[in-house]
Predict the 3D structure of the following.
Amino acid sequence: MKFEIVYYWYLYLKYITMKIKILVPVLLLTAIIACNQSAKDDAKTGGTDQQKSVVSDANQKSGVYFANLKDGDVVKSPFVVQMGVSGMTVEPAGALNDGKGHHHLIIDGSYIEKGEMVPKDETHLHFGKGQTVDTLSLTPGDHTLTLQFADGMHKSYGKEWSTTIKIKVQ
Ligand SMILES: [Cu+2]
């Protein structure tokens, strides 16, 4: 009788062990497949998002841009700068109108925080007549150009309405 109980225990344990032996690899395999799948999904979404952002950069994204210059360009001084904006309208300074303003060029500086007045000096140029083109003379070497859109009272529309590029002047 005692032997029987031990024997049944032995069978029971063997049965459990067998189950575990089968279950563990199956679980592991499932986990690995699931991980792989989600990694693949992540990669897929990442890819699509990137494609989307490239498309929207070119077509829909609102903001300012240099129409004839790009980051890393080498230019010969004096050089022409063409300023563009999408999502807002250029108008002469003087009046406050929603969605309207004028360009500013900041040389070797940074964008101006939203709501702050754009300074007016030799490195902060205002295009208060609504100009979109200018000719710049800069010393040879590396410079940054920041385009900043601001309202009719010269208050900055902030970082999202600015763009900065590095250029090398020869
Ligand atoms: Cu201004």
In short: The beta strands are 63-66, 73-75, 79-86, 89-90, 100-107, 124-126, 133-136, 141-150, 162-169. The first strand starts at residue 63 and ends at 66.
